Amino acid sequence: PVLVVDFGAQYAQLIARRVREAQLYSEVVPHTMPAGEMLAKNPAAIVLSGGPSSVYAEGAPSLDPALLEAGVPVFGICYGFQAMVRALGGSVEHTGLREYGATQAQIEDTGSTLFNGQPAEQSVWMSHGDSASKAPEGLRVTATTPGAAVAAVEDDERKLYGVQWHPEVMHSTFGQRVLENFLLRGAGLAADWTPKAMVEELVDGVREQVGTDRAICALSGGVDSMVAAALVQRAIGDQLTCVFVDHGLLRDGEAEQVREDFVELTGADLVVVDAADRYLTQLAGVTDPERKRKIIGEQFIRIFEQTARDIVADRGDDQHPVKWLVQGTLYPDVVESGGGTGTANIKSHHNVGGLPDDIQFRLVEPLRLLFKDEVRQVGLELGLPEKIVYRQPFPGPGLGIRIVGEVTAERLAILRAADRIAREELTAAGLDREIWQCPVVLLADVRSVGVQGDGRTYGHPIVLRPVSSEDAMTADWTRLPYDVLARISGRITNEVPDVNRVVLDVTSKPPGTIEWE
Ligand code: XMP
C-alpha cells in the first residue's frame, strides 16, 4: 500500500482518498505506529500528512528517520514536510510569516518530478506558522511562496519529496497533479487500484475469511449494504442469506424497492422480517438520540440472531450455523467512530460503535477500507444499476433519528408523508445527483401557531436539510432554487396534516452534523 502517516490533522483521510483517486491503494496509519511496523507493511510509498502542531512544540509528533532511510519514496506535506526537513538536517523556524488560506507558489523548476507539466505560478492552500528556512543537503528547492522561502523540496536520488502546502485540498489548483507526479513519476508506481482489481481483491478476501460457513447480510436499502451484499454473494453464493428488517422507520416505498431493485437483479436469497411493532414498543418514551441508536442497533442484532437460527432450522442443516454477519461499514465510519486513528467519537453509527458487546456473529465488512466513491465503482463493476449505486445515503436508524422527540406511529406517518413530497419534488426538479442527501426532519416536540383554512392551527414544523458533500465528513447546505423550496413547502403544508410550517436548515458541517440527531 501507499501509507499515509497521520500526524493528527483531519487531512490524512483526505490524502488517502486522493491517493485512491490516483488508482493506488492507500492506508492511513497513526504516527504513533513504530517505524518498523510501518515498514513491515511493505509500503510502496509513504506520505507524511499535515498536523496541528509546530515541530518545536512540546510533545509534537516526531518522525523516525528510519522511515526516510528505508529506500521507500516519501512525500511530506505541511507538518510532514517540516518534520522531514528537520530530520534530514535542514532548518525550520518561527519566521513570523504565517500563511493561512490561498497563496501563490512560484515554481522554480517546471521540469521537476513534482511540477512537470505545470505552470510556473499556481494557487496553493497553506496553513502554517513555522517555515523551512534551509533545505537539507541533497534536497533541491523547487518552489517558494511569499511566506516560505523553501516551499517544496525534491531529491530524485533518494526519492524524497515534500511541499509546504496542502495538495490534497481542492483549493490547491494543481494539488492532485503534484500528488500523482510523486506517486507515478517520483515513486514510479503503476496505477492498479481499478474497480476490477478492487472487486477481485475484495471477493478473494471474503472467500478466505468466510470459507464454507454461512453468512447473513443486513440489507438496509442503502448503497453500502447492497454493494456489500452483492460482493459477498459474488464470493460465496448461496451461503449468504440477505435479511431485510422492516423496522417501521423506513421511508415510503422503501421495502418494495429493495425487493425490486436488488433481489430480482442479483437473485440473492431474501428474508423479510416485519418488526415495526417491536421497534415502536422498544422506542416508546425514548428521546435521547444516542439511546435511540443503541436500541435500534441492538434490536437489529437480536432479530438477526433469531433469523439466523430460523434459517438453520428451516434448512435442517445444523452442521453449518450462520457465523457471519455482513456489514456495509465504510472507511469514514470506521474513523469517525474512533476505530481509525484515535479521532474523537462523534456519533456511534449503529453499524459500528453501537453494536452490543455480546454480539454472537463475527463481522464481514468487505467495504471497511473503501470510500464512498469507490463503493459506487465497485457496485457498477458488480453490475448493479445506477439507480442503486447513486442512491442517496439514508441512515440505518432511519426516520427514528429524524423525529426530534419520541418516535410514535402517528409521527412516523407525518414524517413519511412530508419526506415523500420532498423527494418527489427534488427528483422532479432533477436535483438528485446535485444534492448528497436531504434529510427531512420532524420537530415533534415543537409547536407553532399557524392559520390554515378557516382557523388557527397549532402544528409542527418540518425541517428540510439539503446538503452537498463529497464524503459526509464535511458538508455544505445546498442552495436549492426558491421555486423548488416553495413547491415543497406549499405541498407539505397543504397535504400533510399537523404540519403548518416548513423551515430550511442553512448550516454547514461542521458545525452541524447532517442529521439532526
Ligand atoms: P452526520 O449526521 O453524522 O451523518 O453528519 C453523516 C452521514 O452518516 C449518516 N448517518 C448514519 N448512518 N447509522 C447510519 O447507518 C447512523 O446512526 C447514522 N447517523 C448518520 C447520515 O445520513 C449521513 O449520510
TrEMBL record:
Name of the protein in its database record: GMP synthase [glutamine-hydrolyzing]
Enzyme class: ligase
Pfam families documented for this protein: GATase, GMP_synt_C
EC number assigned by the record: 6.3.5.2
GO molecular function: ATP binding; GMP synthase activity
SUPFAM superfamilies membership: Adenine nucleotide alpha hydrolases-like, Class I glutamine amidotransferase-like, GMP synthetase C-terminal dimerisation domain
Keyword ATP-binding recorded: yes
Catalytically driven reaction(s): XMP + L-glutamine + ATP + H2O = GMP + L-glutamate + AMP + diphosphate + 2 H(+)
Positions with a binding annotation for ATP: S220, G221, G222, V223, D224, S225, M226
Entry keywords, A to Z: ATP-binding, Glutamine amidotransferase, GMP biosynthesis, Ligase, Nucleotide-binding, Purine biosynthesis
NCBIfam families (UniProt xref): guaA_Cterm (TIGR00884), guaA_Nterm (TIGR00888), PRK00074.1 (NF000848)
Role this protein plays: Catalyzes the synthesis of GMP from XMP.
One GO CC term, this protein: cytosol
InterPro entries: Class_I_gatase-like (IPR029062), GATASE (IPR017926), GMP_synth_C (IPR001674), GMP_synth_GATase (IPR004739), GMP_synthase (IPR022955), GMPS_ATP_PPase_dom (IPR025777), Rossmann-like_a/b/a_fold (IPR014729)
PANTHER family (alphabetical): GMP SYNTHASE [GLUTAMINE-HYDROLYZING], GMP SYNTHASE-RELATED
Catalytic site positions: C78 (nucleophile), H166, E168
Pathway listed: Purine metabolism; GMP biosynthesis; GMP from XMP (L-Gln route): step 1/1
Binding partners and assembly: Homodimer.
Matching PROSITE patterns: GATASE_TYPE_1, GMPS_ATP_PPASE
Keyword Ligase: yes
Positions of the GMPS ATP-PPase domain: 193-391
Annotated source species: Flexivirga caeni
Gene name for this UniProt entry: guaA
